């Protein structure tokens, strides 16, 4: 039985072929019913397979690209089937029953959209992104399907019926995936024009972003210039295909794979400084810190009183200002809060007041955080989580990983509410 190796000390014994497509083969793993191996081919196709060529090196390039993309999506908390890259041409993934729909998200109008929507100029910008769905059927050229058609098909995979709630969740997730990758490519001076993804249902009934995402999956225009495209559209546009043409396509794909590097955004270049006016505020501050860390934020906590030790407070502020980091101060002080306003009046960095108020004193203690002198820009929130989210939103303006974690959290909140409502509605229907 064939194996695919992981390093030098781990191998997977491949079982039967689950499915073989134009550019990859999916294998079962012996004695591992919940996972599978996706093996790429040195093959490029277009036009539902009508145009096809061998492209030496494509399997390794596509595997590298896909692994990097899914590592990014996993990093911001999007639920995917991807586990890890196991060799130069293979990926380890959760074994899913695939939903036969391509979920397409577009920022700019181009390609088939223009043919289906005559009168719309190329480059028309969609805001929010335009979302479309297509039924996977090569024989009929993957016809566009409406939401109603998907729901009416009553697809069921691993026990999950694909109804209105599931379609809504996948639509929102598709847009989130696009927006995260759009933010990433913007850091490389590239415009992500549109892309397609697929979903599957794992053995535990989770709907996951699955299959592969590589240069076959998107349109990518460096500097926003269509003439510089580096995606599979270059191959699609060829009326005749020479070895030189294939070399150009390969070099484009290699360029994309090398560009997918987001490691610089994982290096801490920021700090959320939580200043407490008294040691008794520590528990409140620890809650803020915990929420900050859930977004991957670096934190530091200090005790200082702007009333009792103004010079020391400003010395602490100056220290953190000197570090060359992106700083957000969170001031935690009860009773008469002079801490946040004093820091705000003496620093150009953002200041968030989060006084440790409770139901017994909120009507009195909150006012010193709200009714501040003119010329101050400190914000005031009450809950530790809110303070952390506000800090994350500030830092997310220049870090798409933090931004992506916020957007993913927003989607998770929506999904949780939607599933709870569906469950409650189903219970009522049984009464």
Task: State Rg.
Answer: 26 Å
The percent of residues in helical segments reads 25-40%
What characteristic shape results from the CA principal axes? elongated
Summarize model confidence as the mean pLDDT.
Answer: 94
How many angstroms separate the termini? 54 Å
Total E-strand runs: 22
Please, could you describe this protein's structure?
This protein starts with a strand and ends with a helix. The chain has helices at 58-75, 112-116, 147-152, 164-186, 233-236, 243-259, 282-294, 310-321, 339-346, 362-365, 367-370, 384-396, 400-430; strands at residues 3-6, 10-20, 24-29, 32-40, 43-46, 51-54, 82-87, 90-94, 97-98, 101-108, 125-135, 144-145, 156-157, 160-161, 190-201, 207-210, 218-222, 270-276, 299-303, 326-332, 351-353, 379-380. The model has no long low-confidence stretch (mean pLDDT 94). The protein is built from 13 helices and 22 strands. The protein is elongated, with a radius of gyration of 26 Å. It has 431 residues and is of the alpha+beta class. The strands form five sheets. Strands 9, 10, 11, 12, 15, 16 and 17 form a seven-stranded antiparallel beta sheet that branches. The protein has a six-stranded antiparallel beta sheet with strand order 1-2-3-4-8-7, covered by helices on one side. The protein has a five-stranded parallel beta sheet with strand order 19-18-20-21-22, sandwiched between helices.
């Amino acid at each position: 039985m064939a194996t695919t190796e992981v390093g030098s000390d781990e191998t997977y014994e491949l079982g039967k072929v689950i499915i073989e497509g134009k550019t990859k083969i999916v294998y079962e793993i012996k004695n591992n019913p919940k996972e599978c191996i996706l093996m790429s081919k040195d093959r490029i196709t277009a036009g539902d397979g009508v145009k096809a060529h061998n492209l030496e090196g494509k399997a390794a390039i596509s595997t590298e690209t896909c692994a990097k993309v899914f590592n990014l999506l996993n990093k911001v908390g999007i639920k995917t089937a991807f586990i890890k890259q196991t060799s130069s041409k293979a990926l380890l993934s959760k074994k899913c029953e695939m939903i036969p729909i391509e979920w397409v998200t577009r920022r700019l109008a181009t390609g088939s959209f223009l043919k289906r929507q005559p009168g719309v100029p190329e480059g028309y910008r969609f805001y929010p992104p335009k979302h479309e769905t297509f039924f996977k059927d090569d024989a009929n050229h993957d016809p566009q399907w409406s939401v109603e058609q998907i729901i009416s098909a009553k697809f069921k995979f691993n026990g999950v019926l694909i109804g209105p709630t599931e379609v809504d969740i996948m639509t929102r997730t598709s847009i989130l995936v696009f927006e995260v990758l759009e933010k990433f490519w913007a850091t490389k001076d590239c415009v992500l024009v549109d892309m397609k993804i697929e979903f599957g249902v794992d053995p535990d009934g989770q709907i996951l972003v699955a299959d592969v995402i590589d240069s076959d999956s998107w349109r990518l225009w460096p500097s926003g210039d269509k003439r510089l495209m580096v995606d599979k559209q270059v191959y699609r546009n060829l009326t005749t295909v020479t070895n030189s043409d294939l070399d150009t396509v390969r070099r484009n794909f290699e360029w994309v794979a090398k560009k997918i590097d987001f490691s610089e955004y994982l290096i801490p270049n920021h700090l959320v400084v939580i200043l407490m006016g008294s040691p008794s505020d520590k528990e409140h501050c620890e809650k803020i810190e915990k929420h900050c860390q859930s977004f991957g934020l670096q934190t530091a906590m200090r005790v200082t009183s702007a009333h009792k030790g103004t010079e020391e407070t400003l010395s602490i502020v100056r220290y953190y200002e000197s570090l060359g980091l992106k700083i957000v101060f969170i001031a935690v002080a009860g009773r008469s809060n002079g801490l946040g306003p004093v820091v705000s009046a003496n620093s150009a960095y953002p200041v968030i007041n989060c006084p440790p108020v409770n139901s017994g004193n909120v009507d009195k203690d909150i006012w010193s955080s709200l009714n501040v002198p003119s010329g101050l820009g400190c914000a005031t929130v009450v809950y530790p989580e809110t303070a952390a989210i506000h800090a994350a939103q500030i830092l997310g303006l220049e870090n798409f990983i933090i931004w992506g974690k916020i957007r993913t959290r927003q989607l998770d909140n929506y999904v949780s509410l939607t599933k709870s409502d569906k469950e409650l509605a189903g219970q009522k229907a049984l009464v």
